[in-house]
Amino acid sequence: MFSAGTSFLASCNCSELISNSKVGPSFSSLFDHSLRRCYRFPTGIGIRISGRLYGEPSGRSKAAKECHVARSSIQAISSVSKSGDSKATRLRNLLESPGIHLGPACFNALSAKLVERAGFDFGFTTGFGISAAQLGLPDTGLITYGEMVAMGQEIARAVSIPLIGDADNGYGNAMNVKRTVKGYIHSGYAGILLEDQVSPKACGHTRGVKVVSREEAVMRIQAAVDARTECGADIVVVARSDSRQAISFEESLWRSRAFADAGADVLFIDALASKEEMRSFCEVSPSVPKMANMLEGGGKTPILTPVELQDIGFKIVAYPLSLLAVSIGAMQGALAAIRSGCLPSPGSMPSFEEMKDILGFNVYYEEEERYALSTSHLSSQRGYSTSDNCDYGSSHNFQDDTEMISQRLQDEVVEVLTPEVSHSYNNGDSTGGSFSRMWSRKLRVKISGRDGFDKLDIRIPAAFLEGITNIVPALVGVNLKELLDNTCFDDGGKQLLDFKDTMGDRIQVFLE
């Protein structure tokens, strides 16, 4: 989280920012020099990142005072209580806390994790991003309610911070809106953003934006509030109007007032075209928080700093495309490097250890230790051993299994069936009956774990069947001789057995 001065000046190189902003040499380490552009802050203005202040203003100029206001207000996010409160309650506390609050938009569980790790106390999901990442398609109403609610469940479960879910136009009429709200509540969202576009919808700031009638638009918000009440939930309803682009600015103000009267918790007009329009919007229903949308890369709304947005009257700010856009750029750069026969530069991506930490490998390993079973206990249950000290799913684990099983094969005492012994099985038939043919065959015994990896794959001559149940206890009670007698003239490769033992491992026996 950062706080800055009253405005961003012209973009510049990182070296220019360090030399011109008087932030000191330690500040340079905070920037990834693989980024080509960044922003210059006015001389004498400090910024705070992760609680540390860089470039403390030397005087109390007007700009410095405004910077101080921004620091204190934006940092107020971290003071919101998280103990025991639902995500919706925490989001409401955030809306009631001082200052302006910044929320990047995520598009999958990983990007949501990164938002939380970066120190943000809330975020959004973006229909634009989810449609792009999951379907590879434009945000033009092609993605369905079912796909959005399923992805929302994965995203919301991945983080502890409250998220506002993009629900487009509610996917139908007022009754569809009620179902959508209930689905988003069940998914774990703290808030839901609903718009007044027709179906199929268009992406904001693009062509073809059309809205439903005033009456239907208000009924959608009323239906959302009713659905929340029926569920006994506290989800925050964010009411969005696209009528500024579809009809007029005056129409969007009328709809915002009506949405507030219908019970909306936050108001949002998309595609506001000037600072004057943004200020007029914030004067509507002053007791209801307002949301700003800073569409990166060239939308219709002016891009303003958090300080400017707070001064106008906004409470929360969405940054809808930053994560998706830089991800696309990074992947394109990596693919170009690989295609040219190179690897992406180390500075352009985290190390493997950092990636494992982000994804929770270390936390998983620590928790796994709590449920680890001793080798002797596993041996008594399964009849074959695993290594307790190996990482879950690693090939080393199964290699140890195979080595230990092979050792047991060497240690087992088995009865060797010689031709003389086999003669007695055939009642003295010197011509060689079915068992004499069976004696030359082999059995393949294969054991696969629940994760799909092979734990055992051995071939045993049919004459050495005694003692096999000591190696594979699951074969106790199976009359292998009878199976062989019935199939001794069959071609090799026939499957004799295929079942799962009590531990969930798959046991397969083949005739070769």
From TrEMBL:
GO terms for molecular function: catalytic activity. It holds the Pfam family PEP_mutase. It comes from the Eukaryota. SUPFAM superfamilies: Phosphoenolpyruvate/pyruvate domain. This is Isocitrate lyase. It comes from Cuscuta europaea.
